[in-house]
């Protein structure tokens, strides 16, 4: 059966990436060794890491004032590592509270310094992006989540502020061109648009480092990672390799302009179908709809279950909403073919006709 | 060319594990999806995680007073996470200083509390295990490294003490039966005997938790991981899968008794050859020789280079010593066939004859 992978993450990867990754497990670059068996301080792995770093800089249009690290620990660890490195105990950082992940980031930051919530959308269950920011002038930085995977909302501009901007881009990185030079720090778990689970991209503008007085454990200190040329400890070799292959695929397939065009085609197709079917109701403010994750509901739990069972029969996986919000969710990351969205829209039409 | 993989880690894995991992990248368990594309909160991944946890408990002979976690961050992160969870600011922990990794663990622990060095082998460049331990009675725990990957030494018994024992077993875990119930915490980066780089096993006796007053960031708090059934955040799915396959391979190949027997066969073959060849000189105390990593030198840098070039020509990789100690090193993890050690011994004989 042809599968349609709408998983929210870990999620669909390009077929070419999967094929090359499987080959590398047998024999990596004709070394006669598996990618799982090579040392991380070999020229083989260094070439992988450097290519990945180069793709990141080139896709983002960044110069030498930025460093590209592949770190362990997932974006959740960055919730801690960012304030540990950048927020002094008596200082204040501004955070946007627009969803479950931003909220977790706020909780971790409070262990290290003061948090000013610049804006919250909690009043409407995070079904919109609150863009009216109140940022204290002395804030060490502003932190926000560019795309809310769980709630299905996305920022469509970069917040305008004088303080350094830090973004969790886990679920929409590399889906569109942005002025990446406006960020002082960007991080993203790889398992949506840039690889498999097990590694986190962290891009750092060097001038924000070294400004706090806290003693930082070396393994958590961005400066130590930079000094060690991004090889402070054994990296997750295979996860870095898969991310490099995925970035290479983005570059070879038209870069971020092409990624955005395809994302808009997928999202237009899906949201137009949702708007046309009275049985299916999108839950978020129209202007804040995510290009990556569409969240919607059916009129009753019974209909939701019936529809989800139908999805399963049709090889459509990942359609159930996040356990914290319920409903349905279709995730449409870079590697998802338009034909999968079309198949889903067709199923919605059939289902609506049946229940008309 | 037939390769002989003597890498110190990431290192050789069983051929069966590599074949199954490559298959799972194409189609995992007939799901029609890649293992890289499945959600971590699916029954598919839960079965993988639970099987891995079960193999760990069964190989170690542990009961329900222990929890098995697969964590991000490598053993280096455990150097921090152990004292963060277990060492109060005014308390003391005892550490053995028998090599580069134990030393790094000591440095991280000092950021959290007091460290008493129970024994050090620094006086002889860590070429032996100092087993005369001086452990303050009020120590929160004793921390030691069971096998020193870089220096080639290994503990052949468990230190006898009343305080909780914590061991970094990264480079010799599952190479032999041990009384694992004598440990309060065991951790190991997976990339030697139990998988590929990108995940760290942490086995915790629950009664040591919750005894300190520090506010622990949730993502670093062992208790939060246990409460979340080892799925606090997105795990490194593929790395956990490869570890599960490797543990399954150990179980299906005779368990720890068989692993030890094979380790001794490999080590006896190699050390006997080293002792017989005057050109090759092992650097560590005979009684502390490691079953996993044999470290030795040749009389001159020129001869070392000539021999290393020969190794390369013969498809023998990973023979160069760690950058911090130099010389040569042959790592002999569980998956290494005896025939590779034999090939290496033959090469030593040829080389010695040529230079006789």
Automatic annotation (TrEMBL), chains A, B:
Keyword set, alphabetical order: Amino-acid biosynthesis, Aminotransferase, Cytoplasm, Pyridoxal phosphate, Pyridoxine biosynthesis, Serine biosynthesis, Transferase
Residue ranges of every copy of the Aminotransferase class V domain listed in the record: 5-344
Binding sites annotated in the UniProt record for pyridoxal 5'-phosphate: 75-76, 101, 149, 168, 191, 233-234
GO biological process, one term: pyridoxine biosynthetic process
One term of GO molecular function: O-phospho-L-serine:2-oxoglutarate aminotransferase activity
Cofactor note: Binds 1 pyridoxal phosphate per subunit.
Protein name per the record: Phosphoserine aminotransferase
Provenance organism: Filimonas lacunae
Gene: serC
